[in-house]
Amino acid sequence: MNKKELRANTLNDLKKLNNKYDKENIIFNKLMHHSKFMNAKSIGVTLSMAHEFNTRFLIRYAQITGKTIYVPKCDYKSKEMYFTKYTSPEDITVDSFGIDVMNHDIGKGEAPELMIVPGVRFNKNGYRIGYGGGYYDKYLSNYNGYTISLIFDVQVGEVVVEQHDIPVQYIITESKEWHTGEIQ
User: Which residues form a coiled coil (predicted)?
Assistant: First the structure.
């Protein structure tokens, strides 16, 4: 299958996912005990869509524990992604593509220590199929921090890897977690 077919099939599987809340709790508990999360002073994370791992509780928990949260924002004209500081739920707005973002650019250009990288489908080596814009791969090509993806088991499988793709360093699902290339 090509990227488009793999993306569509996985999104369909995600929309039919059973016990999503229970699976999210398992994944979140694993993240809470991960040393990179515990030690990070700043975290980059998306404002999730309904079919993805729900990041709202993660954001609130991280704030309570004193971490600074940054969320992505895209400049669709220049095809660049950057991060802005998460301030409060009242400051969330929807961009022209229907994606939740901050309604400001406070902290624009800051690079969080830890990046929670979204995606639709991942292979065991950390390569991913995103939503097709290439924004994360472009951003990650110059990112020096640590990357983790929080995904469901149904998101792991075959991935078409292209030359510009950047793998994540660690993956957590409801049933396992591993450094990419070393399933544990």
Answer: none
